[in-house]
Structures are given as structure tokens and as C-alpha cells.
């Protein structure tokens, strides 16, 4: 049984996330997703809109996902050592400098694959959704 691991922030779930997770699942029998912890999100991207535990619960409820965990702030590979995946499925826009070398150093024999970009929607990234909401602010004036 091949175990696949996928990772991400998953802040404001959207169709691009679902597409990524469906493709990741196609590489094996079990899909385990690691959701970035809040500290990591702040360092690498932005202030999280939703806390990590809420993002984890939402991701775990998606059909292709068998289990979801929150990653560690101090060492992003520690969770990989614990999960022991056969395949690590990266999103089209995810970059982990020297990942394969680091995996090798730690004795992790996971194959790294790159998933494709979902192109059937212009709302396939969290930033795009946030920008669209900002551009529509006039529509929501006065609403609380």
C-alpha cells in the first residue's frame, strides 16, 4: 500500500487545493496531508486567516484525504520522518530548496513528484480570492 504525503497552507480552501489533493491521491493508496502550522505560515506567506487546527479539520474532511496533521515549526522534515511516505506530492508552486538531498541525508526514501496546476478557474490561489474580495468591497459596504 503506497502512502502519499501532500503539504500546504490551505487557508481559504479552493478548487486548486482540491485538484492538487486529487492528483496527489492518484500516486498511491493513502493520502496524508500536512497542514502548515500558523508560525510557518506567518514566516513564509501571510497572517493566517484561519487557525491551523481549523484548516486541518477542513482538509481532513475532503474526500481524497485519509488523514491530516499539522506540521512542526522547528523542523519541517520531522513530520516526514514520522509519516514515512512512499511519495511526496508537491504542488506546482511549492518549492523546498534541496528537499531531495535532505531526504537522502535523513534516510527517507520517498519519491518526490510535482502535481500540475489547475487551470480551469481564475480563483485557483488564495491570494487571487483575497484580491477578488477586495475588488468587490463596494458590493458589501454596510454589511457586518
Describe this structure in words.
- With 144 residues, the protein is α/β, with parallel strands linked by helices.
- The chain has one domain (3-140): HUPs (Rossmann fold).
- The protein is built from six helices and five strands.
- It has a five-stranded parallel beta sheet with strand order 3-2-1-4-5.
- Helix 1 (15-25) links the parallel strand 1 (3-8) and strand 2.
- The radius of gyration is 16 Å and the shape is globular.
- It starts with a strand and ends in a 9-residue tail after the last helix.
Q: What is the count of helical runs?
A: 6
- CATH architectural group: 3-Layer(aba) Sandwich
What is the helix/strand order? Answer: EHEHHEHEHEH
Strand order of the largest sheet: 3-2-1-4-5
What is the share of helical residues? 25-40%
Low-confidence stretches: none
Structural class: alpha/beta
* CATH fold-type name: Rossmann fold
**Strand percentage:** 15-25%
Mean pLDDT: 89
